[in-house]
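Marked as duplicate of an earlier ticket. Keeping the data here for the record.
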Amino acid sequence: MTKHIDVPEVGAPDPERKNSPIFDDESEEEEYEDLELETGVCYFNDETYPIGAYVSSGNELLCCMGRGIWVRAGSAESK
């Protein structure tokens, strides 16, 4: 059985707008510990999302994790 999550489609990250870093998994964050990452929210094209929120960017499903990073959580199915 496939579980469907209703998530907002945010499009592609615009490099001229505020975006939190996107990692393949949470362990990659350690490589960037010297970055001053926001806490409590993730940014995607100037919009804020709370920790635990999911968004769909193209065919990728992203999850907002601690310290305000996006982690790839799989592929997003089109409706």
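See parent ticket for discussion. The two ends are 16 Å apart (CA to CA).
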